[in-house]
Design brief:
Blueprint (H helix, E strand, L loop, with lengths): L5 H22 L6 H22 L4 H24 L7 H33 L1
Keywords: Membrane, Transmembrane, Transmembrane helix
Length: 124
């Protein structure tokens, strides 16, 4: 099943997961920890890569990277304008955040495509 708008499905999933995971991390008291950013990337961006690659298996890595860029930019915008406006003085943090988002989505896409190929081999 190929979805033409798989990027938007992935972005919706990523926004939902980031709100839920951020809320849970805030309740746990891990709001501004570097560990919370790592947990957020693992729990939000890898499932986005999985979903996007599963919905469109012909271009899984390209679409996962695009959705990773869009989600990370949205995350950076919220971080800059809402949580910590002073972070603009540290462009390395912003660039590394985009890089980590792309890598996490590509890891999810790689997991999905390998599972997809394994399922085709087992099925056929």
């Amino acid at each position: 099943m190929i979805k033409e708008n798989s990027i938007w499905h992935g972005i919706g999933l990523g926004i939902f997961l980031s709100i839920v995971v951020s809320t849970l991390l805030g309740w746990a008291g891990l709001g501004n920890d570097p560990l919370s950013s790592f947990i957020l990337y693992l729990l939000c961006y890898i499932p986005v890569g999985l979903l996007v690659a599963h919905l469109n298996p012909y271009h899984p890595y390209t679409l996962a990277a695009i959705s990773g860029v869009i989600l990370t930019v949205l995350n950076q915008i919220v971080t800059i304008f809402y949580f910590s406006p002073g972070i603009l003085a540290y462009p390395f943090i912003l660039r590394s955040g985009i890089l980590f988002g792309i890598i996490a989505c590509l890891i999810g896409a790689a997991i999905s495509t390998n599972l997809w190929r394994l399922a085709i081999k087992v099925k056929g």
